[in-house]
Design goal:
two-stranded antiparallel ribbon; 22% helix; Alpha-Beta Plaits; elongated; 112 residues; alpha+beta
């Protein structure tokens, strides 16, 4: 099992969620996050005053998938979230030792 964390643009979240659901991924966690990378924020005008927005709003999608679906999840996120512009986001993949469904006590991939 792998945990896939994808940081994507806010307006791409719904498209990514729907595409993953079509691939058979029905469980995910979404978090509002703020950060910056090479994009380094941007400036905005408010009431005639320019100010810097250092942390850009993004959405973090967390998915736990069986090893057989990991490549499909990554490819789907890449295809849907990519605009070709700086700030498209990142994908992190880590190995997951165990998953346990609290309600039933199921473990491993059965818990997904």
């Amino acid at each position: 099992m792998k945990k896939i964390e994808a940081i994507v643009r806010v307006h791409k979240l719904e498209d990514v969620k729907n595409a993953l659901a079509e691939k058979g991924i029905h469980g995910m966690t979404i978090t509002e996050v703020h950060g910056f990378g090479r994009q380094k924020g941007h400036t905005e005008m408010y009431r005639g005053t320019e100010y810097a927005v250092d942390f850009v709003p993004k959405r973090k999608i967390e998915v736990v998938a069986p090893d057989a679906l990991v490549k499909s999840v990554i490819d789907t996120v890449m295809k849907i979230a990519q605009t070709g512009q700086i700030g498209d986001g990142k994908i992190f993949v880590s190995t997951l030792d165990e998953a346990i469904r609290i309600r039933t006590g199921e473990t491993g991939e059965d818990a997904l």
